[in-house]
Specification:
The complex is a heterodimer.
Chain A: H1 10-13, H2 16-19, E1 33-37, H3 40-49, E2 58-62, H4 69-72, E3 79-81, E4 87-89, H5 90-94, E5 99-104, H6 110-123, E6 126-132, H7 139-148, E7 154-158, H8 163-170
Helix pairs in contact in A: 6-7
Chain B: H1 4-11, H2 18-23, E1 27-32, E2 44-48, E3 51-57, E4 63-67, E5 81-83, E6 86-88, E7 95-96, E8 102-104, E9 122-123, E10 126-128, E11 131-135, H3 149-152, E12 158-165, H4 169-176, H5 182-185, H6 189-192, H7 201-207, E13 212-217, E14 221-229, E15 235-243, E16 247-250, E17 258-267, E18 270-278, H8 286-293, H9 321-326, H10 336-346, H11 363-382, H12 391-394, E19 399-403, H13 409-412
Antiparallel strand pairs in B: 1-11, 2-3, 3-4, 4-9, 5-6, 6-7, 7-8, 10-11, 12-18, 13-14, 14-15, 15-16, 15-19, 16-17, 17-18
Classes of the chains: A alpha/beta, B alpha+beta.
């Protein structure tokens, strides 16, 4: 049956007048977003925005390279730094996480990207990589791309750090 | 999710709006050249950026795009007589030339010079390719003429159509950079559409339904790469360029013509979806051109005598649930263009983006909105010309390639993503 179905027809349903009747209710629950800075510059960028109003996002800095070598070699035992200076385990943060967004600004975070990316992969957690650099041709950017590509389902290279909060707001972080 | 104020900022393009001011910085497609086929042909109503205009081609072949309404009593000049160097209002005979200048007011003595005091708002119309382009900004700040490759290759290598889409321009344009919907909504077309089928890349599309994405800024906008698995550990990349504010290209397939779109606001609730197909180095075959005229690929069949799609919201897009069940179409709507348009129109004329739940794979859309907002603000506050005005930004191509896993598409495909006259598109 291909004929229009009168009151249910698209001609009526797709009008601005009908759009007013879209049900107004919260159609999603808060996401468990983990924002992880992989290097020092990325951590600085993150610090500038972590005080804004977010929907439960955890802002974290990868720190395992400062840990004892034996511990750092096990990615799930990697340590992360919270904004209040406390340390937390990667495994703790990934429990129940919906999405992990890794932020990098140089190629220093290869070890961190691998640790976080692998841990997310085995848990089936969505990953995104965001590289912030004014100069895309910079060798650091290329290293960051190489570091993140295997572990990020989505990789974004942004020229300005304003994109970080814009992206996080868009994703309801 | 987008705040309401930002949604309003990006979707409102009428006179006096910030986004409207930005659109007025560019040359935009206004009409198909076929709409004014000969001197003194009938005038055509045109509505762009919420301004009602009329286009006509005078006795000397000069094209004009002027205020639709006669300055005398407000009659639509669509009823006008296009004759002897101007468009004459049939009500009292006032006549206008292609610049909107009134050249005759029959009721007044010719010697009074009264008609010299009457002038309608006008915009330029220039023909490049199959299109008449206009720029609706300040006449003294017109940018260089457009240099899009599809419009500048020889006529036998290109085909352009347009269709009316009953939604805001932004939700239509966002469909053009939303690579992740292709594996679902258009999954039936890869095997059947004469302008798509047979390409080697199709099997990668169909074999890997969970592509990875990379979004990279370009001078004029963005390059969005979708990465799928190919043989021997290599990756198949489909790279979509977006040039501000509303030009998108689809990555090519095999030796099929390359296609893309312009999304031009008619008003805030409607837009023109301009669709082009071209081949950089060869003429379109008779079969390809016929397929385009018949509504295959990204083109549509029309309601006779109009540029409204034959499948439209008044007939529920000719929804065919049986074809949907058989798997011939994924949504039940036939044709790539109307598969997109039907869903985008179903959102309502201007979708409420405060209710969205975007995910990471929507980063192309998120970045496009971010760049639009920045450009609009920079123009409004500092008078900075937005990206995409410079013809250098327009010399882009889409591409589909197979690359080793360690190569970034933006570096490996640097030349593939630029217009290279005489060199064919990079396509798998």
């Amino acid at each position: 049956m291909n004929a229009p179905t009168l009151l249910n027809s698209c001609a009526k349903a797709a009008t601005a007048a009908e759009a007013r009747f879209r049900i107004d209710y919260p159609n999603s629950r808060a996401r468990a977003s983990r924002i992880i800075a992989l290097d020092d510059k990325a951590a600085e960028i993150m610090r500038r925005i972590e005080g804004e109003l977010w929907s439960g996002a955890h802002f974290l800095t990868f720190r395992s390279r400062h840990a004892a070598p034996g511990i750092a070699s096990l990615s799930i035992n990697a340590t992360l730094g919270a904004p209040n200076g406390a340390e937390t385990k990667l495994s703790t943060e990934l429990a129940g996480a919906d999405v992990v967004i890794m932020i990098a600004s140089s190629g220093e975070g290869m070890e961190a990207a691998a640790a976080v990316g692998n841990a997310c992969f085995v848990r089936g957690i969505m990953t995104a990589g965001l590289i912030v650099s004014h100069d895309r041709t910079d060798a650091h950017v290329e290293r960051a791309v190489q570091a993140l590509r295997p572990y990020a389902a989505v990789l974004v290279i942004a020229s300005d750090e304003e994109y970080v909060p814009a992206m996080l707001q868009a994703l309801r972080a | 999710m987008l705040r309401k104020d930002v949604n309003d900022l990006l979707t409102q393009t009428g006179p006096g709006t910030a986004m409207g001011a930005m659109f007025r910085q560019y040359w935009m497609p206004a009409l198909l050249a076929e709409e004014l086929p000969e001197n003194d042909c009938p005038p055509v109503r045109v509505k762009l950026l919420s301004e009602r205009l009329v286009a006509f081609r005078d006795s000397q072949g000069r094209c004009g795009l002027i205020d639709e309404f006669c300055a005398h009593r407000g009659v639509s000049l669509w009823f006008g007589r296009n004759e002897e160097g101007g468009l004459r209002c049939p009500y009292h005979g006032w006549k206008y030339d292609h610049t909107g200048q009134c050249i005759e007011v029959p009721s007044e003595p010719e010697e009074s010079g009264f008609c010299a005091k009457i002038k309608l708002k006008n915009y330029p119309l220039i023909k490049i390719g199959d299109i008449l382009w206009t720029c609706m900004g300040d006449a003294d700040k017109q940018p260089p003429h457009p240099e899009w490759e599809f419009a500048t290759v020889p006529p036998e290598q290109t085909f352009t159509s347009k269709r009316w889409q009953e939604s805001n321009w932004l939700q239509a344009m966002e469909g053009g950079i939303d690579s992740s919907h292709v594996s679902w909504l258009h999954s039936g077309a890869l095997n059947s559409d004469p302008l798509f089928k047979g390409a080697r890349g199709n099997k990668y599309n169909q074999g890997d339904k969970k592509p990875f994405f990379e979004v990279v800024e370009g001078d004029g906008g963005l390059f969005i790469g979708a990465r799928r698995n190919a043989e021997e550990g290599k990756y198949y990349w489909r790279i979509t360029p977006w040039v501000m504010p509303s030009f998108t290209m689809v990555p090519p397939r095999g030796d099929h013509p390359v296609h893309g779109h312009f999304w031009v606001p008619i008003d805030d609730d409607n837009c023109w979806a301009w669709s082009f197909d071209y081949h950089p180095v060869r003429a379109l075959t008779r079969e390809e051109r016929k397929a385009m005229q018949d509504g295959f690929g990204i083109h549509v069949k029309y309601t006779p005598g109009t540029y409204r799609p034959l499948a439209n919201k008044d007939n529920d897009y000719l929804m065919d649930r049986a074809a949907q069940r058989r798997g011939e179409t994924y949504s039940g709507v036939e044709g790539i263009a109307m598969q997109d348009a039907s869903l985008q129109e179903s959102m309502g004329p201007i979708v409420d983006r405060t209710k969205e739940n975007l995910v990471s794979t929507d980063n192309g859309i998120i970045m496009a909105r971010h760049r639009l907002r920045k450009a609009v603000t920079a123009l409004k506050e500092k008078g900075v010309a937005p990206p995409g005005v410079d013809p250098a930004h327009q010399r882009v191509r889409s591409a589909s390639v197979v690359l080793p896993p360690d190569q970034a598409f933006i570096d490996a495909c640097k030349e593939d993503l630029m217009v290279r006259p005489g060199i064919k598109q990079s396509s798998v």
